[in-house]
Amino acid sequence: MQGLRKVAIRGTGMYVPPRVVTNADLEELMDTSDEWIQQRTGIRERHWVDAGTGPAHLALEASLRAIEAAEIEPGELDAIIVASLSPHHEFPGTSAFLQDMLGLSEIPVMDIRCQCTGFLYALNVGQLYVASGQHERVLVCGAEVHSTGLDMTTRGRDVTVIFGDGAGALVLEPSEDAERGILSLHLHAEGKHAKKLWVEAPGTVFSPRLTEEMVREGRIYPHMDGRFVFKHAVTRMPEVVHEALDANKCTIGDVDLCIFHQANLRINEYVGQQLGIAPERTYSNIQRYGNCSAASIPMCLDECVRAGRLEPGDLVLMAGFGSGFTWGSALIRW
Ligand code: COA
Q1: Which of 3, 33, 41, 83 has its CB surrounded by the most CB atoms within 10 Å?
Q2: Does 108 contact ligand 1 (Cβ within 6 A)?
Q3: What is the number of the ligand 1 atom nearest to the C-alpha of 320?
Q4: Where are the beta strands (DSSP E) in the chain?
Q5: CB of residue 238 inside a 6 A radius of ligand 1
Q6: Pocket of ligand 1 contains residue 233 by CB under 6 Å
Q7: Which structural domain, as residue segments, surrounds residue 270?
Q8: Confidence bin at 264 (pLDDT 50/70/90)
Q9: Residue that is last in its domain, among 159, 174, 189
């Protein structure tokens, strides 16, 4: 982007609630099996909140870690962006609750509703804030509490076994090195498939927005056409990765670390094969956390940073696909 400042990721953080829910625990609730879940998705366990904890609480913990890693004080932040499909309350947005929990006031806050691609959309907005000079330090966070909105019976087993709760965060700042920072973001959406993965109710198109019948019929839970979603994910992710590589005149061989959204390990293995990326250059944590939607990519990034997997100058590729449908990629020179 000509004339705009290069933007770098300064600090990262993640947090999951302490309660671990294994596949065996789910076998107690519904007709499923550890074998089915691991074979189809790669997931062994996930973390779920206890009652009273919402996404803003998880975002707070992740954000404090990111702020500490960035070696700044919360008061030095200029804006907060939170991506979440599971808001703390109907309104205001999760970002407003997070701002207050961080002890901040008056700085702008914004919620992004782009589901599993939400983090990439939020990163794009944060990048533009900093690149344009409007803000110096922006907190970008992905946070989800799925567990309180899942169907814990056999009826919902295809979706319920996939999702976990968690949060990931990072701080954006102007880069001190013109060669390093976010190189590009490519985002897409295709709303005609909105109902292939969605939660119908409560909905403002209904009056009243929620009825006992909707609850009884399970219309308050996520519904997914799993095979349809799978097919689109394995097509769109390679597409948008190539878009990022082509825009930066790079090849997949130049990528040092590839972080895909953690929807299903099989999707990511398939996409990785299609792209021809060496498995050791990818990172997954879905086995331990399940699909944490907007939080998955920043959670992976934080684990990689803290494990020392990234060297200055490394090329980091991120790609995601989710409900909407939405999909996108980011290329970053670390
Ligand atoms: N445990 C046991 N059996 C289950 C199950 C579970 N948790 N969930 C579904 N099944 C059953 C189905 O009822 C079906 O049984 P049937 O053949 O007797 O009708 C069978 O398993 C196959 O179901 P299907 O939905 O066709 O399985 P699948 O091979 O497509 O795998 C997903 C299901 C969800 C793992 C897979 O479709 C997927 O990963 N889709 C994409 C998901 C995704 O990316 N979502 C998030 C995007 S952000």
Answers
A1: 83
A2: no
A3: 48
A4: 7-15, 20-22, 45-47, 79-83, 109-112, 138-144, 166-174, 181-189, 197-198, 223-224, 257-260, 282-283, 315-322, 326-333
A5: no
A6: yes
A7: 181-333
A8: very high
A9: 174
Which residues make Cβ contacts (< 8 Å) with residue 282, sequence separation at least 6? 257, 258, 259, 260, 268, 272
Q: Would you say residue 86 lies in a domain?
A: yes
Q: Is the pLDDT of residue 42 over 70?
A: yes
Check if the beta carbon of residue 72 is closer than 8 Å to that of residue 189: no
By percentage, how much of the chain surpasses pLDDT 90? 99
| Number of domains forming the structure of the chain | 2
Q: Determine which residue's CA is closest to atom 25 belonging to ligand 1.
A: 226
Regarding whether 157 and 211 lie in a shared domain, the answer is no
Q: What is the pLDDT of residues 214-239, one digit of tens each?
A: 999 999 999 999 999 999 999 999 99
pLDDT band for position 1 (cuts 50, 70, 90): low
Same domain, 313 and 170: no
Residue 47 CA to ligand 1 centre (angstroms): 21
CATH number at residue 27: 3.40.47.10
Alpha carbon 90 to its chain's center: 20
Instruction: Indicate if the pLDDT at residue 2 is higher than 70.
Output: no
**Do 185 and 312 reside in the same domain of the chain?**
yes
Ligand 1 centre and the CA of 158: distance in Å?
A: 5
101-123: pLDDT as tens digits: 999 999 999 999 999 999 999 99
Task: Using pLDDT thresholds of 50, 70 and 90, give the confidence band for residue 3.
Answer: confident
Does residue 1 fall inside a structural domain? no
165 and 19 together in one domain: yes
Whether the per-residue pLDDT at 8 is higher than 80: the answer is: yes
| Ligand 1 centroid, distance to 226 Cα (angstroms) | 6
Both tokens of 92, joined, read 């205001």
| Eight-state DSSP code of residue 256 | S
Q: Is 85 in the pocket of ligand 1 (CB under 6 A)?
A: no
Distance between CA atoms of residues 121 and 127, nearest Å: 10
Q: Whose CA is nearest to atom 47 of ligand 1?
A: 322
